[in-house]
């Protein structure tokens, strides 16, 4: 009995000593809208790999800024091409690894018990809508997309004074969930994960700018080899299946 | 300096001053109760008041958000009966600043009251002064230094508050954006030059507040 116990302890020690050499911690900086889908992908990835994946979710503008300041990111997963272009222009991205296969669309959401309904962008300007939550339209992709749509529809000047800008798209979702704003514009995928909100209007793809999520290896990645493996997994059919489950569109 | 920046500076100074004045009567009352009276649950109340000082400001903000949101117990009542919204308005900024700076005012004022000799108050009482008269003609003047110090601390705290404000009031340009929020946003947008300009303003504001108080005290003490 005692010998078995000693053997187990010895084995555990050997394993513990062996682990740090084999397993890498991959740091993924990803847009807030990817939170749930990437967590699901991590679960499926880690079940077959020794590497561990950590996330930093925030507005893509915040993440780009952090990477530009030298944050130890392996992978950057942005919600718009412009943020990735910025980093690429600064030489911080391994552009050969860059790919953009993920798409999304915008929806107008209201609290689940709200009587409001919309048939067009112009309906957002009705007086009952006192405040509209958007990700910061100056900086965060979801807000930039929403602003572009509202500008194209001609309602931005009327709506601008009612806009509550948030740090990222999930904060806009939370503001609508809590009922503190009457409506919000978020991604279709954000609306899908909450039972406290309902979609009052789905923005037609043709009215809004194309929403595209580029992902790439960061040039100074601390774990480039492990990160490349995870990047390949993100492009795999298994990952695509999970993204589609969460409402994203996946191009081939 | 753009007109937008002037608006931010003016709003920050105004809302910080308002919050300091708003909490003043409550803060003095609470400080006096803590300094001069013994009552059951005193230490609990004292701890509770100090919480915003030690809790993460964002956590305090979250509590306020839940209490004063439209679905919250207090915010719901205000919305239904007075059609008053707190969250994402300038009132939210006022609320966050007030709650965050309250403990600083109470602590300073409490120490100031404790340093006033109870004997002087008793003597005034025996000479026939009412409790109110004792308070404003004996206790208050003698504690004034500490109280003003506490008000300045509260004002300075309000000027720099970030975490609770962004939770409760958001960062709405022209409505709830304070200096700290504006500096943070400028940095996020990569507009560092604008951020440094606002940084300079906040240093100047803090400097004037503290220096002004030194000047005031210097004058007050000279006759004595």
Blueprint of the fold:
The complex is a heterodimer of chains A (252) and B (224).
Chain A: H1 2-22, E1 25-31, H2 35-46, E2 52-58, H3 60-68, E3 75-77, H4 81-89, E4 93-104, E5 106-111, E6 132-135, H5 141-152, H6 156-159, E7 163-166, H7 169-177, E8 183-187, H8 188-192, E9 197-202, E10 211-218, H9 224-234, H10 237-245, E11 249-250
Parallel strand pairs in A: 1-2, 1-3, 6-7, 6-8
Antiparallel strand pairs in A: 3-10, 4-10, 4-11, 5-8, 5-9
Helix pairs in contact in A: 2-10, 3-4
Chain B: H1 3-36, H2 42-54, H3 57-68, H4 73-82, H5 90-115, H6 118-126, H7 131-160, H8 163-168, H9 179-188, H10 192-221
The stretches of 5 or more residues of chain B where confidence is low (pLDDT under 50) are none
CATH-defined architecture of the largest domain in chain A? 3-Layer(aba) Sandwich
Distance between the termini of chain B: 44 Å
Name the CATH superfamily assignment of the domain at 3-54 and 105-162 and 174-218 in chain B. MetI-like
Name the chain pair with the biggest interface and residue counts per chain: A-B, 18 and 17 residues
| Biggest sheet overview of chain B | none
Mean pLDDT of chain A equals 91
Kindly provide the radius of gyration of chain B, computed on alpha-carbon positions and rounded to a whole number of angstroms.
20 Å
Overall mean pLDDT of chain B? 89
**Could you say what the CATH architecture of the domain at 3-54 and 105-162 and 174-218 in chain B is?**
Orthogonal Bundle
Radius of gyration of chain A: 21 Å
Please work out how many helical segments of chain A DSSP would assign. 10
Strand order of the largest sheet of chain A: 2-1-3-10-4-11
* Form type of chain A: globular
Strand content of chain B: under 5%
Helicity range of chain A: 40-55%
């Amino acid at each position: 009995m005692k010998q078995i116990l000693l053997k187990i302890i010895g084995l555990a020690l050997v394993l513990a000593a062996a682990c740090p050499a084999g397993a890498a911690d991959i740091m993924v900086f990803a847009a807030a809208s990817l939170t749930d889908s990437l967590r699901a992908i991590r679960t499926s990835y880690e079940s077959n790999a020794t590497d561990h994946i950590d996330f930093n979710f925030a507005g893509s503008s915040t993440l780009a800024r952090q990477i530009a300041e030298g944050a130890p990111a392996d992978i950057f997963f942005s919600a718009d091409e412009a943020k990735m272009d910025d980093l690429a222009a600064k030489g911080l991205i391994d552009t050969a690894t860059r790919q953009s296969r993920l798409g999304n669309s915008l929806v107008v959401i209201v609290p689940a018990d709200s009587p409001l309904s919309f048939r067009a962008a112009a309906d957002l300007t009705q007086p009952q809508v006192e405040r509209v939550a958007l990700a910061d339209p100056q900086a965060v992709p979801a807000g930039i997309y929403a602003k572009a749509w509202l500008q194209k529809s001609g309602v931005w000047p009327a709506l601008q004074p009612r806009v509550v800008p948030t740090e990222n798209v999930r904060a806009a979702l939370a503001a609508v969930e809590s009922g503190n704003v009457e409506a919000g514009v978020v991604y279709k995928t954000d609306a899908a994960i909450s039972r406290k909100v309902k979609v009052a209007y789905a923005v037609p793809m043709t009215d809004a700018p194309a929403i595209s999520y580029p992902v790439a290896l960061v040039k100074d990645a601390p774990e480039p080899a492990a990160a490349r493996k995870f990047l390949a997994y993100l492009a795999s059919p298994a990952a695509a299946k999970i993204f589609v489950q969460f409402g994203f569109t996946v191009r081939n | 300096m753009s007109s937008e920046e002037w608006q931010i500076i003016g709003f920050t100074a105004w809302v910080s001053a308002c919050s300091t004045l708003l909490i003043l009567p409550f803060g003095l009352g609470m400080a006096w109760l803590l300094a001069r009276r013994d009552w059951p649950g005193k230490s609990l109340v004292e701890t509770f008041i100090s919480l915003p000082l030690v809790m993460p400001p964002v956590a305090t903000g979250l509590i306020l958000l839940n209490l004063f949101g439209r679905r919250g117990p207090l915010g719901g009542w205000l919305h239904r009966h007075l059609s008053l919204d707190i969250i994402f308005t300038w009132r939210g900024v006022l609320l966050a600043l007030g709650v965050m700076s309250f403990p600083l005012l109470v602590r300073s004022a409490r120490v100031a009251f404790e340093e006033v000799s109870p004997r002087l108050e008793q003597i005034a009482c025996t000479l026939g002064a009412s409790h109110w008269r004792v308070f404003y003609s004996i206790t208050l003047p003698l504690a004034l230094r500490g109280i003003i110090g506490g008000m300045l601390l509260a004002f300075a705290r309000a000027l720099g508050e970030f975490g609770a404000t962004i939770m409760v009031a958001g960062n709405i340009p022209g409505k709830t954006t304070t200096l700290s929020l504006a500096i943070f946003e400028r940095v996020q947008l990569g507009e560092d030059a604008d951020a440094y300009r606002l940084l300079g303003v906040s240093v100047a504001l803090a400097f004037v507040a503290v220096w002004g108080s030194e000047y005031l005290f210097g004058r007050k003490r000279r006759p004595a």
